[in-house]
Amino acid sequence: xxxxxxxxxxxxxxxxxxxxxxxxxxxxxxxxxxxxxxxxxxxxxxxxxxxxxxxxxxxxxxxxxxxxxxxxxxxxxxxxxxxxxxxxxxxxxxxxxxxxxxxxxxxxxxxxxxxxxxxxxxxxxxxxxxxxxxxxxxxxxxxxxxxxxxxxxxxxxxxxxxxxxxxxxxxxxxxxxxxxxxxxxxxxxxxxxxxxxxxxxxxxxxxxxxxxxxxxxxxxxxxxxxxxxxxxxxxxxxxxxxxxxxxxxxxxxxxxxxxxxxxxxxxxxxxxxxxxxxxxxxxxxxxxxxxxxxxxxxxxxxxxxxxxxxxxxxxxxxxxxxxxxxxxxxxxxxxxxxxxxxxxxxx
Length: 347
Prior knowledge:
With 347 residues, the protein is mainly β. It contains three helices and 22 strands.
């Protein structure tokens, strides 16, 4: 990437990795974060960013250093006791007129398990909340949901050792249907899914205590949660130590949401809501649930249809770490699902 001395450049950064949260940095240059997931933020300067699969981050970089060649680099962030492909990907920011024979400078990236940087970086993210771009955070909540994130082990007669790894929300492993969920909803096709996904896990436990390695079976099902049109939803996503704790980037289709709170350990419904940011929380569509922690989001269900919510780690969503919301139609003419196109190909 060739740059001209004295100019400012906007980098639009996308994490297109399948299973890795990534640190990204440009050697010798600060970055000013101005946008996440296509929503403006209060600008702040940092030497590195953290970006999860499915997330986007826009930064400003000033070409104000000594003309030369500087590595841009990315490498995985993993603060759980799991192995990752700890390679560093690089590209080069090169000042105009500098020959390719000049050896680039490497950036100083955070350590692969730098939890403190990850938490500190995410805490700096704030909505711009200007008159032109307000943060319309729902202050009144109509529906409160609490979903536990867990790994599990289910029987598998055809597997090598008779079991298979699985993942679940509220101990339910999602089974993909053979008919599209939106199609089944719109055409009222029975038997494709049930709208009985529980608002809370089947039982409470010390979610982030010592690792739990017994009774790890999950329930299989295509179970969705029905949401009233234009209602406000608060969802707390709680990581668990079923097999292991781990950071999970969760993505909601069809909506942006406000990340009103996050923390390490078990969510405390009595104390933690008092610390929520209801003024200028970051607005995005994919959020990282911290390792051994929780994240609370709020959104207004004003987009009718069937919308997936899933872990953006490809391995985990393939194991069933997902569900969907059925947002009902409203009463107005522009508050209902549009009919499918006439040339919609059949399954």
